[in-house]
């Protein structure tokens, strides 16, 4: 295996007779942000647990920072930052005590006070963990994952429960981690978050990889789905696509539109002698791609039993 941050090859995770992860392969290059997407039950969490060394794969192989996450667990852990969705904290300890505790495990930690200020936790420094709000607990979990200056960070739903300001602060921190050469593997249900942050994306469905690529590659492959044409009002374009005129002279043509289709639509306007004053296209977003790839799972109810 290569010296990538994470390399997964044909990994299978089973819970009894149920297969949660079914032959997944992926590579996380060093110094990049990698987003793992999928509905609840797609197998994301089980795959993360294999990479983090908390669960052995039933089949396949996994290397993290060049090490085996099970056999080399003790050697690997000081080099990782792991942000869990919940749990792993002493409920009676204060936010400051918890962050200083985890900082003490590192040879060269980030100053806990600085990190708490950055994440807006300075007002809750003396508040016990169990009394923090959900968003505050999430921000503290992020601080714990980062305080040891890790080479690789696992972020499981990093902005869940956060308000808008905290979410944007978290995004900035993730972008700074990448700029510093830190590798990030994250899961998220926020597609705009993945589209903004991720260098690479894997979409999982029913324990398998449904699509992989950069956000730009995935959206480019999905194509253009809206063409907006401004011309004189009251026309009835005779084209094999859905056409709406929401306001006079503003036509929206919806469908899977490649270059030939767009040319045929504009040719119709030209044949009618209609003066076209503006043309705009809208490419599908990562959310559009995600929903299209996972639509079958939702409509058939085959959500799988993967975690």
Automatic annotation (TrEMBL):
**GO molecular function per UniProt:** ATP binding
Pfam families linked: ABC_tran (PF00005)
- Which InterPro entries does the entry link to? AAA+_ATPase (IPR003593), ABC_transporter-like_ATP-bd (IPR003439), ABC_transporter-like_CS (IPR017871), ABC_transporter_ATP-binding (IPR050763), P-loop_NTPase (IPR027417)
**Signal peptide extent:** none
- Localization (cell): Cell membrane
Alphabetical UniProt keywords: Antibiotic resistance, ATP-binding, Nucleotide-binding, Transport
Q: Where this protein primarily resides, as one coarse class?
A: membrane
Q: List residues of the ABC transporter domain.
A: 6-231
> Has UniProt tagged this entry with the keyword Lipid metabolism?
no
Membrane association type: Peripheral membrane protein
What protein name is recorded for this chain? ABC transporter ATP-binding protein
Organism of provenance: Paractinoplanes globisporus
């Amino acid at each position: 295996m290569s010296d990538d941050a994470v390399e997964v090859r044909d990994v299978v995770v089973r819970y009894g007779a149920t297969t949660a992860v079914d032959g997944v392969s992926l590579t996380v290059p060093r110094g990049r942000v990698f987003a793992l997407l999928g509905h609840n039950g797609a197998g994301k969490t089980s795959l993360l647990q294999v990479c983090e060394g908390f669960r052995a794969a039933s089949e396949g192989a996994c290397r993290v920072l060049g090490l085996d996450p099970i056999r080399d667990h003790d050697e690997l852990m000081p080099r990782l930052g792991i942000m869990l969705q919940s749990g792993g904290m002493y409920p009676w300890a204060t936010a400051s005590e918890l962050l200083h505790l985890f900082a003490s495990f590192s040879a060269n930690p980030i100053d806990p006070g600085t990190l708490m200020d950055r994440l807006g936790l300075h007002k809750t420094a003396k508040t016990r963990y169990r009394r923090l709000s959900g968003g505050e607990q999430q921000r503290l979990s992020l601080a714990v994952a980062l305080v040891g200056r890790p080479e690789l960070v696992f972020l499981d739903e990093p902005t869940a429960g956060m308000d808008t300001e905290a979410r944007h602060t978290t995004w900035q921190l993730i972008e700074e981690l990448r700029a510093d050469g830190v590798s990030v593997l994250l899961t998220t249900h926020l597609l705009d978050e993945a589209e903004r942050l991720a260098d690479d994306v894997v979409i999982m469905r029913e324990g398998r990889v449904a699509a992989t690529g950069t956000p730009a590659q995935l959206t480019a492959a999905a194509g253009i789905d809206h063409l907006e044409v401004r011309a004189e009002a009251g026309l009835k374009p005779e084209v094999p696509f859905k056409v709406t005129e929401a306001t006079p002279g503003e036509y929206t043509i919806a469908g899977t539109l490649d270059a030939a289709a767009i040319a045929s639509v504009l040719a119709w306007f030209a044949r009618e002698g209609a003066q076209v004053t503006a043309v705009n296209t809208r490419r599908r977003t990562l959310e559009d791609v995600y929903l299209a790839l996972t639509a079958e799972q939702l409509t058939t109810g085959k959500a799988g039993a993967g975690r």
